[in-house]
Design a protein that fits this description.
Length: 122
């Protein structure tokens, strides 16, 4: 069954994730995009926040994770975000999390590096 979707795009944070000492000392920007999959038909009828995912609470959860404990890999950061959102938003059945690192300390010409994961509630 196809699910409805709420998007939170371009959440920007400054944090200290990375493999290299300069990343964990100096920090850098991280951009998070989320797609929350849930049934929005009831919210569409009732116009009540209790029948949807609360965007402000989701933002606060993501902020807490990204600006909290540093991880070596953005793969781990994406997983921690997914875990937190699924734990805090009971109506979300699944989500997609994209974490973008615009300025990783690797040589070359590119816009960014990113990971994207999809997780479902079990």
């Amino acid at each position: 069954m196809k699910k409805d979707c709420i998007y939170l795009n371009g959440l920007n944070f400054y944090a200290y994730h990375g493999l290299f000492p300069e990343e964990t000392k100096l920090g850098q920007r991280f951009i998070v995009d989320l797609a929350l999959y849930l049934d929005l038909s009831r919210a569409g009828q009732t116009d009540q926040m209790t029948d949807s995912a609360h965007y402000g609470e989701v933002y606060d959860s993501v902020k807490r994770v990204v600006e909290g404990e540093p991880f070596k890999l953005i793969e781990r950061l994406a997983q921690a975000i997914a875990d937190e959102v699924l734990a805090s938003q009971a109506l979300v059945d699944a989500l997609q999390v994209k974490v973008t690192k615009p300025d990783p300390p690797i040589p070359g010409h590119y816009d960014s590096v990113a990971v994207e994961i999809y997780r479902e509630r079990h």
